[in-house]
Amino acid sequence: MTKSNPYKQKLASQLSNFDIRLLRIFRTVVECGGFSAAEVELNISRSAISISMSDLEERLGLRLCQRGRAGFSLTEEGKLVYQASQQLMASLENFRTQVNTIHAKLTGELNIGITDNLVTLEHMRVSKALKALKSEGSEVEINIRMIPPNEIERYVLDGGLHVGVVPDLRPLPGLEYSKLYTEESLLYCNYEHPLFNAQDSDLTAEIINKFEAVAPSYAQTAQTRIHYQDLNTSATATDREGVAFLILTGCFVGYLPTHYAKRWTLSGQMRALSPEKFNFTTEYQIVLRKGTKPNLVLDTFLKEISADK
Questions:
Q1: Does the structural domain 1-102 have CATH classification 3.30.70.1290?
Q2: Biggest alpha carbon distance in the chain?
Q3: Would residue 247 be called left, alpha or beta, if left means φ above 0 and alpha means ψ between -120 and 50 degrees?
Q4: Would the CATH topology of 1-102 be identical to that of 103-178+284-307?
């Protein structure tokens, strides 16, 4: 007698709320990289997640992932289901926001992705716009994801995010960009660094190059990369907080945005080295998917952030 394959059956013609719940759990597991991290995010036990994943695989008739001692990984079918689930959730949210627009009641979600450490910018345009949004619609649910720019753009493209804030790196087809912030960065050292008491007039690129520097490992504009070419880079960091950590050791010099470094310059823990010579600016932009359908929550947020100029 031939043994039946538990993954041969097909999904029912209609998706139930239970199916959608299972897909949401599946998406979280994928985005967290496994059951353990998803356990915290979902606030349910690992065994409950495992049961949900098995239920979803049975209902879809597909093997979605490999899990065990070797770790968590998606099958090819799992990758396709994940992509389809992203489109489904975006469609469900679009439906909800469009119905809310009909009722002229500001409810729904705003999913926004932001590059790290912009909260200390003096302009506070994002915070002010979010405050205004909540004042107009107290039931609006705001979800912020702090992730690298390339991930923000990817999620905006596939509908996982409504809007993002990213540096002006390289425009991607399918996305719309509009100017938001101009950010200045200077070269800093800690008070224990040999250059801390040096005269700015004496500092040259050759002198700076004699000391170890930290550079970011995340993407930079071509103009920004020029400023790192003259540095004696011996350390890297995946974000600005990592750069600050290394500068504060007193062993490295490195570039930081002025708004982010302000707390340490005011306390005397850091100083900018010859700001007239060693500086650059970065443009930050609002990014949207081209052809985004009308969404009252998103439109209200964009209206408020455009008004705060």
A1: no
A2: 88
A3: alpha
A4: no
